[in-house]
Amino acid sequence: MRTIDSINIDESLVETCISRFKHLRLLNLRYSKLETLSSSIGTLKHLRYLNLCGNRKIKKLPNSICNLQNLETLILLQCEDLEELPRDIRKMVSLRHFVIATKQMRLPANGIECMSSLRYLSFYKCPRLECFNEGIQRLTALRHLSFLFCESLISLPQEWLPDLSSLRTLQILFCPKLSSLPEGMDRLTALRELHIVGCPELRRDYEREVAKIGARWSNSVLRIRCSWEIVLSEKDVPCA
């Protein structure tokens, strides 16, 4: 067996599946109400896709998950009790699609920025996250970057954007304390979609700036959506 796609699977059955099916490629455990994930997950050397969406009681991931060096997709959407990312997260060098939830105020240094294969990176409901380490500008293959419901996020590093030469979509949704955007957004020549929703602190200084960006790129297919005050509910954000 190479695929397990199940909703509401219990922890003992997950352990059984891991021990029996060593050649799994896809493991979808969304909405399974897991409280822990077995450290034996790290033995699934062939795993490409792992979805833990909706497991709201998971507090910690085993560091052995970082042994999954062939893993391309890791989805932690709605894992709202997850306290921190594994310390060796940088070893997951094949990740292309990463949806993050964490209670950390700051991400581990030399972590995500070492994932040079990333194409899609989303921070979803990281309530304590205030700022980021430098280095994410090294993710030159990144095409999608989003920040959703990061209520404590204050700033983004100024050095990020100009080097993200492949970035096509930038979403900043419901980050009410975010008061500034990185400089150099007009140098994102591959950008096609810019969404800023529910970020009232940005409105005063950036409403005109965003309009200028749209005018500057009027010959491209850039799509801009800015609704500074609108309220979006969690049900509008799909679970992958």
From TrEMBL:
Keyword Repeat: yes
Keyword field: Plant defense, Repeat
GO biological process: defense response
Pfam families for the chain: LRR_14
Domain Disease resistance R13L4/SHOC-2-like LRR as annotated: residue spans: 10-199
InterPro entries from the UniProt entry: LRR_dom_sf, LRR_R13L4/SHOC2-like
Gene3D superfamilies registered for this protein in UniProt: Ribonuclease Inhibitor (3.80.10.10)
Name of the protein described by the UniProt record: Disease resistance protein rga1
Species annotation: Quercus suber
